[in-house]
Amino acid sequence: MKDYFPLISEKFGKEEAEKRVGAKISSFSGLLTREAAAKLIAAEEGLIQEEFSPIGSLGKDAPSVSVRGKVARIFPMQEYRTGKRSRSFVLRDETGEIEVKLWNEDADSVRGFHLGDRLSLRNAYSRGGVLNIGYRGKVELEEREAVLGPSTLREGTVSCMGEVSSISGMGGSDYFSFAITDGQKEAQVSITHIPTRGERVAVGDTVLLEGAEWGGKELKMGEHSRLLVKKNSPNIFRGALESAEVGPETSKLAVGGREFCLETASLVKFLKLEGLKEDISLPAVAGMKLDGMKGARATILFEEKGGRRLVKELSLR
Q: Which of 117, 172, 242, 270 is the most buried (most CB within 10 A)?
């Protein structure tokens, strides 16, 4: 075990550190080693920086590990006769990749993950080369994968969202082809792995393509790519958040070239500002928060009321 005594000595001085270590050992009825006591004190004082293990260094069996990486693949939910359910995904860093399996309520959280998202796993345990999250374990989303539009594509592996503008259909049995647009530019999409997946899309649908390869001519959907289809309805609109004007009673949002109105109560709930003190300006705080969200992809459920598009539900990614 690493010796943490020098850390606490540096903060408290050697004499005081010795007293604290002795007191900590006594509080555990003498069952704690000197090294373990020093580590506990260092952790309590915030002197230990959390250490993440390289995925490539993990063994098949380990009682407690913390890792960090990006989601490289997501598998379907598995249900068992016992009533339990599990869902797995692959986490990858610069050194390797590993399967992560979540159970029951934790498995439901995978619905919120997307290819390319950066996650951290703390206090996981490895069994047979698969990471599991026990009662002490924790999964945190650190960074969302950027979602691009056809007009902002860059070469490499990307996630792209757009509206289906045309469908070419099956190219023999090798691929399915269609086109998407973000209102500024169109991009061709080719599904080469299980091309029949493309038969789910229709013109006007909004699709999210995850793990697609863009080489400048078309988005290629391979074995590990994901196609998520969102059927459009007249009262659902999706686009990039362009600007926001916060008023005392109603705010105006410009999304994808259209204007929507958001009542103050809905704005406060969306931005989680319920606890804002009365002497702090809501328009100022909300305006700063929304300004930092510009460019995010918005999904809006709205209703036409008094000649305005009134937002009922709002989500940003």
A: 117
